[in-house]
Write a structure and sequence with these properties.
The chain is mainly alpha-helical. The protein is built from 10 helices and 3 strands; from the N terminus they run ααααααββαβααα. The chain has one domain. The longest helix is centred in the middle third of the chain and has 20 residues. This is HNH nuclease domain-containing protein.
């Protein structure tokens, strides 16, 4: 997280949180550090994931602040704490997006702002799925021109076949037709790299696959799959 944070403030914030964990002593410090890692995984990295659909749907924005509460929403009628869980998860995600990526999601991505062009990409169905699952992402190097990116992946021989080495965005009217916000793409890329380096990616994929395979909840309460999904999101 320290290495991948897209802003200096984000790096300082993560470093400060780790130092605070260390001040708790050896055993308590390890527990605090594990809890911090779970917090970032479940309420920050999870924001960039979307559960897969059996039939391709419309292309989603780069990320959705409500994405972190999809599991809770499915249990709203069966789980007494669902409203509290949604509020807690959303609040945690909002705070982390601002601290790590410098993104004020309440102001920038609330309501109709979510569908602004700055937060949208038009992609083919397969690339959209891989981008949403953070199997691919867009990187910028310091020497790259503005709005120029390099597709990256942990398995480029699988996911980057047929994708250009360089992707450049342009617009005839930056005011009326703005380009994707570099901060959003940088934060998405940072989260993708952290998720794969830490092993969190496969864990999150498993939860989403389990939820996708659970079509109907029993009338007497949430299924085991949903229960464990909710537990992981706390």
């Amino acid at each position: 997280m320290i290495l991948e944070a897209p802003t200096d403030e984000g790096r300082m914030d993560v470093a400060s949180e780790i130092v605070r964990c260390a001040k708790n002593g050896d055993k308590n410090g390890d527990i605090a550090l594990q809890n911090l890692a779970e917090l970032y995984k479940n309420h920050f990295i999870r924001v960039f994931y979307s559960s897969e659909c059996r039939t391709p749907a419309r292309s989603h924005p780069s990320f959705d602040i409500e994405g972190c509460v999809n599991a809770q929403q499915a249990a709203s009628s069966n789980h007494a704490k669902s409203k509290h869980l949604r509020s807690y998860a959303a609040a945690a995600s909002v705070a982390m997006l601002e601290r790590f990526g410098g993104i004020d999601s309440i102001k920038e991505l609330d309501g109709s702002n979510l569908h602004r062009l700055e937060n949208a990409l038009t992609l083919s169905a397969d690339i959209h799925s891989w981008f949403s699952d953070m199997r691919i992402w867009l990187e910028r190097r310091p020497e790259d021109p503005p709005n120029t990116y390099r597709p990256a992946s942990t398995k480029p021989h699988v996911y980057l076949v047929g994708i250009p080495d360089i992707v450049s965005f342009s617009t005839p009217d930056p005011q009326r037709l703005p380009l994707p916000d570099p901060r959003y793409l940088a934060t998405h890329a940072a989260c993708a790299r952290v998720a794969h380096m830490s092993g969190a990616a496969e864990d999150i994929h498993k939860v989403l696959r389990d939820i996708e395979e659970t079509d109907v909840l029993p009338s007497d309460g949430p299924s085991d799959v949903l229960y464990h999904a909710l537990a992981r999101l706390l």
